Automatic annotation (TrEMBL):
InterPro entries: bHLH_dom, bHLH_NCOA1-3, HLH_DNA-bd_sf, Nuclear_rcpt_coactivator. GO terms for molecular function: nuclear receptor binding; protein dimerization activity; transcription coactivator activity. One of its GO terms (biological process) is cellular response to hormone stimulus. Residues 9-62 form the BHLH domain. Keywords: Receptor. This is Nuclear receptor coactivator 1. The keyword Cell division does not apply. It comes from the Eukaryota.
Length: 73
């Protein structure tokens, strides 16, 4: 009986892990954009830096949306 040996390319595995990390990061950025846009009704598409800057500005200005204050159980 012969067993097939499958070689795993470490570079390919690293690329997949990086892609998963970026996808998860983008999901969090999108979620944050929804929360920030609830208080900032500017029009147009914003990039990641703008979303993060608006979130930081809200925290620094203590204008934290009510959504952030809800505790997750």
């Amino acid at each position: 009986m012969m067993l097939n040996v499958v070689e795993v390319d470490p570079f390919s595995n690293k690329c997949l892990n990086e892609k998963r990390r970026r996808n998860q990061e983008n999901l969090f950025i999108d979620e944050l954009a929804e929360l920030v846009s609830a208080t900032d009704m500017s029009s147009g598409k914003t990039d990641k830096c703008q979303i993060l800057q608006r979130a930081v500005d809200q925290f620094a200005g203590e204008s934290i949306p009510e959504v952030f204050l809800i505790q997750k159980l």
